[in-house]
Amino acid sequence: MFDIGGWEFFLILLLALLVIGPKDLPLAIRTVTQWIRRARMLAREFQSGLDDIASEAELEKVKADLTADTGLDDIRNEIHGAVKGHIDPDGEIEEAVNRIDDPLGIDNGEDDEQFLFEPFEDEDEFNRKILEEEEREKARAEAETAKNGETGEEAVRKDGGLA
Q1: I need a surface site. Which of 3, 16, 70, 144 has the fewest CB within 10 A?
Q2: How far is C-alpha 155 from the geometric centre of its chain's CA atoms?
């Protein structure tokens, strides 16, 4: 990496001893070695990331070459067509499956799964949403109580609670 000979290294150590002092020199050396370790670790991580990207790109290229050379897509399409022709020659099964996927016949072109489940980014967001829902429910209950003109105790007595 750096071409530092014996005399240059000795000169650097002598200057460090004079500038930093004998008391703080071990701490300074320890700090510099930690920086060097971190830099080497980052360089290794960066290199391994580049190696992963290169291997993925190479695998995609090999897959594309094999598919083009062997004609696997053509064979798959032929098998799919033959099986579909024997099992569902008039397309009734496919039509029934499409009706199951869209029973009302409304296809907005969007992925329906996004409306069924929206994942939370983290646990804090999940907890915040639960607290917000509890606060809304509490506010609704208070508004209902205020609308009826009852206090909380009166509402409990009215519902059959102990007075």
Answers
A1: 3
A2: 47
